[in-house]
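User: My collaborator sent over this chain with a note saying "see what the structure looks like." That's all I know about it. Can you take a look?
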Amino acid sequence: MGKFNQSLVEKIAALIEEDNYTITEICRIVGISRKMFYEWKATKSAFAEALDQAVEAREEKLKQKARQSMRQKLEGYRQVETKTTYVASKDSDDPDSLVVKEYVVKEKYCVPETSAIVYSLSGGYNESKSRKQAQAPSPLVITVDSEKTKRDLERLQKNLSEKKSSC
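Assistant: Without extra context I'll predict from the sequence alone. Here is the result:
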C-alpha cells in the first residue's frame, strides 16, 4: 500500500486532471485501495483540496475545448485529410520493404453550421432552463471574420427577434 505523501497526492491529482481513468484505475496505478483513497479524501484536507483543484482544472479544460469546438462550428473550418499508399519495393531483396506509391492530400472547407449559430443566438444551454427556472438568456457576442457569415448571423438574429415579438 502507498503511504500518504505530497508526491503521491500530486500524481493522483494529475491523473484526475487527465480525465483518462476511473478512481479505481487511479488507485491501482498508484498502489492504494479505493477505501484508502476515500479515507484520505475525508480526513486529509490537503488531499481533498488537491482533488478539488484537479477536478476544477479538468472541467475548465473541457469547457475550453467545448468553446473551441463551438467557435469552429460558428465560423467554419478547413479539414485536411492525407492518405499514403505503400507498395512492396521492387528494388529491394527484402519482401517487407515498402515504398510510397501515392500520397494524396485532400482539403475541404466545412461551412458554419446553422444549428450552432441558432443555438448560440438563442442563448444556448442554460442550467437554469434545465432546472425549469425562468431566467432570461445572457447576451451573446459573436465575432466572425467572414462577411457572409456576419450577414447570415444578422439575418438569423433579426428573424429570431421578429418571432419573439410576434408571440
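A starting point for your reply to your collaborator: The first strand starts at residue 77 and ends at 88.
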